């Protein structure tokens, strides 16, 4: 039984409404304090007030700017590094262990160091975001470029294609689905990285709002900021899906 996209989205929206209704009902029935778990209606009111008064907008812009800068830098470096490692087995053997080590170190532990080295502001947030989203692009690019059909690769060699021509006209188009999948993962991780970095030393950004709300014991404001973070992540993920469909459609054509 196939379900249309419209019906799938309708079911998802209905499920969300049911869960929110149960949440609201349980909070009211059990008399939970807003400090412990605010009701969805209270979160919506806080969210609306913050947007209407303009409180949230500078923080949204700061997080979005750091996220996009870090994503662009990390993705570009990850793509180039993946291409270089895919083209050189020696480079892969020498550099891959260092790349893995850079990823297994917790980014939350690096955040205070970056603040110490680069000061407060956007730069540490951008650097941590770039470091987090670098690896998915590199790994998926490396994997995608290594999955080229051997017969097609041999045909390019027989036709006298250079390594650069083979890379641009065969390997990259073949590995495009894997590269775009890595971009989707990087977008989600970039948002996580930006918010986590803002926890440590940013004066603006949604992560800074969460920390400020925690200090004021304003759980409702904290949930409102988390809703904005989730909405931003969903929108960016959907934008990646649209980009992926267009690129793959043009490649198929």
Kindly report the oligomeric state of this protein. Answer: single chain
Calculate the terminal CA-CA distance, rounded to whole Å: 29 Å
Structural class, judged by helices and strands? mainly alpha
CATH architecture of the largest domain: Orthogonal Bundle
Number of helices: 10
Q: Which secondary structure elements does this structure contain, and how are they paired or packed?
A:
Elements: H1 5-30, H2 40-52, H3 56-87, H4 89-104, H5 107-118, H6 122-145, H7 150-158, H8 163-201, H9 206-215, H10 219-252
Helix pairs in contact: 2-10, 3-4, 3-6, 3-8, 3-9, 5-6, 5-8, 6-8, 8-9, 8-10, 9-10
In short:
With 253 residues, the chain is mainly α. It contains 10 helices and no strands. It is globular.
Task: Describe the structure in your own words.
It is found in: Cell membrane. Its main location: membrane. Keywords: Cell membrane, Membrane, Transmembrane, Transmembrane helix, Transport. InterPro entries: MetI-like, MetI-like_sf. This is Binding-protein-dependent transport systems inner membrane component. The mean pLDDT is 84. By secondary structure, this protein is mainly alpha-helical. It is globular, with a radius of gyration of 22 Å. Helices cover 85% and strands 0% of the residues. It has helices at 5-30, 40-52, 56-87, 89-104, 107-118, 122-145, 150-158, 163-201, 206-215, 219-252. The longest helix is centred in the C-terminal third of the chain and has 39 residues, at 163-201. The protein has ten helices and no strands. It has two domains: 1-28; 38-248, MetI-like (MetI-like fold). The protein starts with a helix and ends with a helix. Helix 5 (107-118) crosses helix 6 and helix 6 (122-145) runs antiparallel to helix 8.
